[in-house]
């Protein structure tokens, strides 16, 4: 893929590959929110997850700096918390890679997340990372 970063890893947190449905709507800019439909919810596929962000596959060309309201469910059999956890947060599009026609990979950085949800994501990611390395 052209434009992919090939230098040293810059992430501060473990990132794992996942395959979850994620629902979102555009929070702002308002012009894009109005264009896509006020509070109209869309779905995408979460490809990877860390406690600071995620990669998702969507059908819409959302520009960098777009803020999304995002919700998804973590299924975590080894959790110290609930086995099914609904997460609601706001994330900002950091990058948008055009893949095949009508498909885009978005890099999302979490900008507004409850501390409890952050801990649940951390627990999920750490459990998955440990079980994948075994």
Radius of gyration: 15 Å
Largest sheet: 6 strands, antiparallel, barrel
**Any guess at the CATH architecture?**
Beta Barrel
Number of strands: 6
**According to CATH, what is the class?**
Mainly Beta
CATH topology descriptor: Thrombin, subunit H
Strand order in the sheet with the most strands: 1-2-3-6-5-4
Average pLDDT: 85
**Helix content class:** 10-25%
Q: Count the domains.
A: 1
- CATH H level: which superfamily? predicted glycosyltransferase like domains
Low-confidence stretches: none
- Could you spell the SSE succession in H and E letters? EHEEEEEH
Derived structural class = alpha+beta
Instruction: Tell me the span between the first and last alpha carbons.
Output: 30 Å
Hey, roughly how much beta strand do the residues contain?
35-45%
Number of helices: 2
Shape: globular
Describe it for me?
Helix content is 19%, strand content 45%. It is of the alpha+beta class. A 6-stranded antiparallel barrel has the order 1-2-3-6-5-4. The termini are far apart.
Concise summary:
The chain has 134 residues and is of the alpha+beta class. Helices cover 19% and strands 45% of the residues. The longest helix has 19 residues, at 115-133.
Topology (elements, then pairings):
Layout: E1 16-28, H1 30-36, E2 42-49, E3 53-58, E4 67-75, E5 84-98, E6 104-112, H2 115-133
Antiparallel strand pairs: 1-2, 1-4, 2-3, 3-6, 4-5, 5-6
List keywords for this structure.
Thrombin, subunit H, single chain, 134 residues, alpha+beta, 2 helices, 45% strand, 6 strands, 6-stranded antiparallel β-barrel
């Amino acid at each position: 893929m052209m434009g992919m970063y090939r230098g040293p890893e810059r992430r501060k947190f473990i990132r794992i590959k996942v395959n979850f449905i994620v629902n979102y709507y555009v929070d702002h800019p308002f012009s894009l929110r109005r264009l896509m439909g006020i509070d109209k919810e869309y779905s995408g596929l979460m490809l990877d997850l860390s406690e600071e962000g995620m990669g998702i596959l969507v059908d819409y060309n959302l520009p960098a700096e777009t803020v999304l309201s995002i919700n998804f469910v973590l299924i975590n059999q080894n959790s110290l918390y609930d086995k099914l956890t609904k997460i609601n947060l706001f994330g900002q599009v950091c990058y948008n890679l055009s893949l095949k026609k009508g498909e885009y990979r978005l890099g999302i950085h979490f900008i507004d997340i409850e501390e409890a949800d952050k801990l649940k994501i951390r627990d999920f990611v750490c459990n998955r990372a440990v079980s994948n390395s075994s």
